[in-house]
Amino acid sequence: MPVTGVTMSSQEALEAECLHHFGIAPRKSDCRGSFIKLVWLRDLKEYLQCIDEDSIQRYVKCHIMLLFGMILFGDKSGAAVHWKFLPLLRDFGSIGQYSWGSACLAHLYRSLCRASRFDCKEIDGPLTLLLAWAWLRLPHLAPVPREPHSFPLANRWHNWDRGGGCYRYLSLAHFRKAFDDLQEGQFVWQAYAVDRIEPDTIPPKIYIDSVVWSATVPLVSFECIEWHATDRIT
């Protein structure tokens, strides 16, 4: 199901959704317009006691909203998350049926578009995903992989600081120059080719569903709609 719904700015609607999901509503000082401050959700999550099904669901919803605000759909402040996601969490059993992956990509594509403007100084969005994408295709910029056969593929860099500590001392100017000096052969166009990925690294079920993740379709995340241009690059 598409990740979409109402995005109107309403303190009353925000409070009503929080009361429904958490049994408590944030104060105005705990919000920033239509955004709920992450510190309020963190405190609520610490306070909750998982003693029954309702309290467990509230705890999980808190965790999901923190995940949205901190990693998947974060803004440049990194301190709040929009309440618009809460209505999609009402049916607890249906949360996993939404296309969160495509919504996340839509948010990243929109963030990259905005970051390309000459007057933009910062970028938001799921930057961990962007790093994993870049490190697969620009190996001369990536830390040395520690577990080359792990899946998800991003796991291969989870211990990169142990063997590639020199990367933490490189400046922004270094990487800008590396991009300026980029040669054609330094970009990996087929990152998942047989000679680059061990046959058993990516689970077979991922390839079975390739007709879905390789489709050239619009990616929807509320008011944000971006094309998934798999016919250009994947």
SS content category: mainly alpha
Share of helical residues: 25-40%
Principal-axes shape call: globular
> What Rg, in angstroms, do the CA atoms define?
20 Å
Number of helices: 9
Number of domains: 2
Beta content comes to: 5-15%
* Main beta-sheet annotation: 3 strands, antiparallel
Helix and strand pattern: HEEHHEHHHHHHEE
Describe the oligomeric state of these chains in a short phrase: single chain
Output mean pLDDT: 87
End-to-end CA span: 22 Å
Strands of the biggest beta sheet: in what spatial order?
1-2-3
Q: In total, how many beta strands?
A: 5
Low-confidence stretches: none
What does this structure look like?
With 234 residues, this protein is mostly helical. The chain has two domains: 11-97, no CATH class; 127-215, no CATH class. 39% of the residues lie in helices and 7% in strands. The protein contains nine helices and five strands, in the order αββααβααααααββ. It has helices at 11-22, 38-47, 53-72, 100-115, 127-137, 160-163, 172-180, 204-208, 210-213; strands spanning 31-32, 35-37, 80-82, 218-221, 224-227. The strands form two sheets. The protein has a three-stranded antiparallel β-sheet. The protein is globular. The chain starts with 10 loop residues before the first helix and ends in a 7-residue tail after the last strand.
Q: What is the topology?
A:
Elements: H1 11-22, E1 31-32, E2 35-37, H2 38-47, H3 53-72, E3 80-82, H4 100-115, H5 127-137, H6 160-163, H7 172-180, H8 204-208, H9 210-213, E4 218-221, E5 224-227
Antiparallel strand pairs: 1-2, 2-3, 4-5
Helix pairs in contact: 2-3
